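Lab notebook page, bench 4
Experiment: in silico fold of construct C2
Operator: M.H.
Input chain length: 318 residues
Purpose: comparison with the prior construct
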Amino acid sequence: MKNTINRRTFLKLGALTSTSFFTSRDLLGMNNFYQFESDNKGELYQFKVGDFECFCINDGGLDYKLEHFFKNVPKEQVEKVLSEHNLPIDSIYTPYTHLIVRTKKHLILVDMGAGKVLPNNGKLPQTMRSAGIEPADIDTIIITHAHPDHIGGTLNDEGKPIYSNAHYYIWKGEWDFWFSDTAFEKTNEFFINTAREQLNPIKDRMNFLEKESEILPGVSIIAAHGHTPGHIVVSFSSNSKQLYYIGDTVLYPLHLEYPNWLPIYDIIPEKAEISKRKIFDLVADNNALVIGQHFVPFPSIGSVTRKENGWLFQPIKK
């Protein structure tokens, strides 16, 4: 995302994440297909997709101005819809939800959180330890895109990779963009410097993707460019069950219900629109689970159904 770092303000995590998710839940009658179990007061959520063991982990979260998430909509209209959804109307709070998936042979992390580059974040390594996972256990990291809240947690205070045994995947066009002069015409210097400082030290471990493919058994990459030039979605499939981690294909559930409401953060808006329809039609048609990094409430997981010209995100029921 761009042009936000000095415009964001703290919103205490208790506002939307204080609700504990301790009990197993049914997701739209899908409890026969997916198993859910949660603990750690809304920062860790464990579930299974087929034979894959999965964990949603909240790295932190931040507060955004309404006009940054809905740039082309009158504020009064946004406030009305937020009220109807029983959400705060003064700002948009989002968690920063990341995903760990344990397959038969691999332990995969999708995105690395903001680390210390953004306030109120950097909880990812500590929380995964509470699930019995050490950062050194991660062998594969997939980067949906190189905004600070997704790659700011790459390095430790000594400038070494936190995930010391991992190999990384990123779309080649994403890498090329952040290390190009063109980036300075499209986004701000803080974002560019963060991407370069965090990613350059792991270049020798990076796998550069140039086409949609299955990179590991049951793990596939789908191009979803627009939010950034090389933004991707990751799909996980096991025993005919599917999960899509959509990164920032959209930023908030209301962007599905009102697909013409646009954020300020998409670098290539026309491509973001195409990707949005491609990905969420796919998710809805496959009756799959979906995780949006910024979706409320944590654990940011649910299903998507078609609704008029858009879609409806239905989070896991309590």
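Observations: The radius of gyration is 18 Å. The domain at 14-315 is CATH 3.60.15.10 (Metallo-beta-lactamase; Chain A).
Next step: discuss at group meeting.
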